Amino acid sequence: MRIDRINVRSFGNIMRWNSGDLKDNMTVIYGHNESGKSTITEFIRSTLFPISGKKRLYPTPSKNDSGIIEVTMDNGDRRTLIREQKKVKEENGKRTISEEFSNMDSATYRALYGLDLEELTNNKVISTNDFKSKFLTIPGGENVPAVSKDIDNRLEELMTPEKMSDTRLIGACMKEIDSINAEIEEIESKMDQYDALYAEREDLKRKVLDKKKLIDLSNDEKARKRLNRSQSGNLEHLRELEDECKGLSEYDSFNPDDKARFEHISEEIDRIKSEIPSDKKIKDVNNVLSKRTEIENVCSQSNDYIKNKASISKVESDISKIDGEITELEKKVGWTSEQASKVRNGQYIISKAERVLQKRNGRNFGKREYGLLLLGIVGIVVAVLGALLLEDMIVTIAGAVLALLGIALPFIVVSKKKKDPLNWDQWIVNEGYPSGIEPERAIVLAENLRVLCDLNSKRDAAKAERQSLIAETSLFERALAPLAMAYELKGSTEENIESLRTMLNDAIVIKEKNEQITKLKDKMKADSEERSRLLRRWGSSERFKEAYLKKLRLIDLRKEMETLKQSIEATTKLSISELKAFLADDIPDADDLKDDSDQYSQRIGEITHMMDEIMNDDAYNQLLTKRMNAEERLKGLAREWATYSIAQTIIRDSCDRFYSDLQPTVVIRANRYLSLMTEGRYQLDNDPRDNDIVVKDSVMRKNSSQWSSGLGDQIYLSIKMALAEEITAEKMPMIMDDILVRFDDERKQGACKAIYEFSRENQVIMFTCDNSVFNYFRLEGNFNEITLG
């Protein structure tokens, strides 16, 4: 949706103000303080989205409030909003803007599209959780803060990492275990007999262990001898492998990499032979390539030619449409467009006619006249009192004079008001209009004549554009003609362009193919020489392949020999030479050692039984059970603390990585605008764990409490412009009233660049008291310039 025209008849201190046609998406309206910028802003906002209830805003509502806003919807539907006091209706009975977008209330509209300094920093809309989750975070990210907070609360209940406290679950459990251990130690310290038995049992266990070690050593020695004898077969197999290696020693110098090199060269030679030149032919490749620059220039300009042809059709359609509108309007008013251009029309005639109507239709008696009549009544009362009660002649005369003046003057004033301030009929004839036309008819006719003049101007502009486009297409066709003649092309312009493009591409391909074939032949020759060098020693490719297989067998034999040697040495703990010596001089096995440890084991059992009887105390056993349970509970709490700690670390690392790379569309656009305003310093941080809006630079992150007023304005403006492009399917015009007053010069220029970029797809109407804003926008491109008087 875009606003085409604003006509304020009466609103606050603004009377009969007309914006004219707002042809560009960007409009800048300059005016000094108290020149009516905020009043016009409020007129636009309250007309598009009237405020419900009895809330009173600047300016104070008046019964004379009236005006018109003409808009065009994105689908081309034109609507005229007529305002009378607080009520807004559509001229032809269509829905008003607030009715069309009933899901948007006036507060939301003002916070996003009707911006002054107060509404710019109004963050109620963008700070709601529903709004943030829909536009400012990645789907699912809204649940992260709650999950992270729950984990932090549970970790706090389990343990404080900085200090072990008895008030936390883990600290309390450790304290309980320490208390149980102290009780157990107290019981055990009283058991002198238990300690003596324990010492005797440990001594007996050492004796049993020493005896077992001696027996194990004896058994190990016997096993080792048996193992060494079992390796004789492996030694024989090792000797056979060594003999086979000696038989293959002549192939030891063969390099296995030569086999891969040989096969690669052979494949390259076969591949090169299979290359066949392209059979595409052109009469004269060099002739085509000699005109390569001219052909490329024509082809590069072909898109512009096609676009111009399409533009000519569109402009001719627009001209035809405008002709129809002019004809229809000429029939309606009975004037031709040439006649309309010779007289003054529009607001000048309307203003004169409205003044005449106001004089003619004004009331005979106003406040001033009734005040004079009241003065006359007071004079009569004074005269009566002076004559009857005071019997004072002076008072009586004074009262009579006042009565005469109070009664005569109102009728004199009324008679003067009824006089026409100018000779209307003569004046309208002097302006070129027909005699006898009344002011009411003159208002309608003047507005229709203005529209007729505007349509005529649009038609003239369209015709000029058509001539310019025709001239450009003719220039292109003249440039194409010599090439079409040179290559005997007889199709349409578009077909000749495509033929030239195809001829040039084919010529380039053929030239490149010929160069490639030459290189391939040179490479094939070099590869053939390399293959001959590899075969020179072995005589033929069959002998070469046989040598390769023998070399592989030799490598496998040596690997097998090395593996067998390592296995024998690892098993026997002897080198090959030591093992051969051992087998040559084998010693018989020694007698088994007598295992007499049973008597020690019996005594150990008796001592253990005695110790169990000493320790068979219910209180002691209960303490052991209680400690075991406490230790298990401590392990569970520790595992839970570790699990939550890892989960929190994963959440933080994932958010730091994930949300630094993946950003919603609104955040990407807002960052683009914020970067322009802050010279690339700040970017939004859309981590869902932040409840506030946060920005970051290369050094630190800042929440809203750390922003300066200027930075806050820049952040909110960036977000709201990005949201304005996403929140509705219809593109709503954005109104800005002196929102750059807290920007320094550099950021003000960046803001103008960002706003102009936003206006490429969305209409912006900016009111400002800073004349430098004009200069900043002139650096960006065309826009509507309006100055308030």
Describe the structure.
The protein is α/β, with parallel strands linked by helices. Among the domains are: 2-138 and 663-787, P-loop containing nucleotide triphosphate hydrolases (Rossmann fold), CATH 3.40.50.300; 147-187 and 618-658; 192-222 and 595-615; 365-408, no CATH class. The chain is 65% helix and 8% strand. The strands form three sheets. It has a five-stranded antiparallel sheet, covered by helices on one side. Strands 7-11-12-3-13 form a five-stranded parallel sheet, sandwiched between helices. Helix 12 (292-300) packs across helix 20. It starts with a strand and ends with a strand. The relative contact order is 0.14.
Principal-axes shape call: flat
Strand arrangement, major sheet: 2-1-4-5-6
Measured as a percent range, the helix fraction is: 55-70%
CATH topology label of the domain at 2-138 and 663-787: Rossmann fold
Mind telling me the CATH superfamily name of the domain at 2-138 and 663-787? P-loop containing nucleotide triphosphate hydrolases
Number of H- or I-type helical stretches: 28
**What can be said about the biggest beta sheet?**
5 strands, antiparallel
Query: Low-confidence parts, pLDDT < 50 over ≥5 residues?
Result: 657-662
The tally of strands reads: 13
Instruction: Output the radius of gyration.
Output: 52 Å
On the 0-100 scale, what is the average pLDDT? 80
> Helices and strands: which structural class?
alpha/beta
- CATH second-level architecture of the domain at 2-138 and 663-787: 3-Layer(aba) Sandwich
Give the CATH level 1 class of the domain at 2-138 and 663-787: Alpha Beta
- Strand proportion, as a percent range, falls in 5-15%
Distance between the termini: 28 Å
